[in-house]
Amino acid sequence: MTRPALLSIMVLTLAFGAVVAACGGDDAEQATLRIGAIPDQDPERLQRTYGSLSDYLSEELDVDVDYVPVTDYQGAVTAFAVGDLDLAWFGGLTGVQARLEVDGARAVAQRDIDEAFTSVFIAGADSGIGPVTDIAGLSAVAGRSLTFGSESSTSGRLMPESYLQEAGVDVDADLDGAPGFSGSHDATIEVVSAGAFDVGALNSQVWDARVAEGVIDTTQVIEVFRTPAYHDYHWVAQPNLDERFGDGFTDAFVDALIKLDADDTGDREILELFGAGAFIVTDDANYAAIEATGRQAGLIR
Asked: Are 145 and 252 in contact (CB under 8 A)?
């Protein structure tokens, strides 16, 4: 073969390779890890939290990471179910719902606070409802107006409603009007503070954080009751992560979360945004009680 002919073949080979690479858009798209979360707080807080986490994960896992916001809790479940999210931060109930939609999806990590999570009931100081010491004391909510957070919230609806039922309060019959649904824990605080509802139920971590930040006037809104503990928030992973990103990728994601160290300035910022001291391993079995409660409430079918 002459030298000019050989050079021509080499040029054509390189050109063909360039075309193949250019046509590999699907592979390039798959190289991006898409994470999401239930919108349980103010959108700006969520953007800051998951933006910081995305930057950290991108560096640790050596992949591009995109935070994909959703508009509501069921939107997060749907996005995970159709494959638009590779990993999602769910509450206990939505995590169960998502896993039931995707065969092989599994719970992989939670915060240290999530293995003994609680809800709080709050009330306007002028509502006439004072602090109570046990579940039975929640009977004082009867005859009052009450708001939950999202309809699919574990800490802002499912568990508080189950404790009200235990106290003998039927939220469909015993309240002053139908229960409200504020949409998020921050919104629950706002509407109770404004006097739109006598009582609200929400995530204890959000309540404690807002009190610590000094953004709540505790002379106007008081904590009425803190519930018994249950498992709540957790990361749920798609079953095909290792296939798409390489063997061991799911474990590497969990390891990256566990590696976050409160003694490191950058890591501490992420942990504080999550209201956590650390992330720990979890598994599906930890949410069996949430699933049972959800089925009893008709929120899981």
From this structure: no
Q: At what angle do helices 185-193 and 204-213 cross, to 10 degrees?
A: 60
pLDDT grade for 31, boundaries at 50, 70 and 90: confident
Q: Are residues 206 and 289 in the same domain?
A: no
Separation of alpha carbons 197 and 193, rounded Å: 8
CATH number at residue 89: 3.40.190.10
Beta bridge partners of 120: 202, 226
Sorted by sequence, the CB contacts under 8 Å of residue 171 that are 6+ apart come out as 146, 161, 164, 165, 179
Q: What is the pLDDT of residue 13?
A: 41
Q: For residue 245, is it within any domain?
A: yes
* 101-104 CB contacts, 8 Å cutoff, 24+ apart: 101/77, 102/238, 102/239, 103/239, 104/239
In this prediction, residue 3 carries a pLDDT of 46
Structure tokens given for 207: 């309540």
The two beta strands, 87-90 and 32-37, are: parallel
Question: What letter would DSSP give residue 287?
Answer: G
**174 burial class (0-12, 13-18, 19+ CB within 10 angstroms)?**
middle
What's the pLDDT tens digit per position in 64-104? 999 999 999 999 999 999 999 999 999 999 999 999 999 99
Mean pLDDT value of segment 163-174: 97
Inter-residue contact 275 to 111 (CB < 8 Å): yes
Domains in the chain: how many in total?
2
pTM: 0.87
Pairing of strands 106-111, 64-67: unpaired
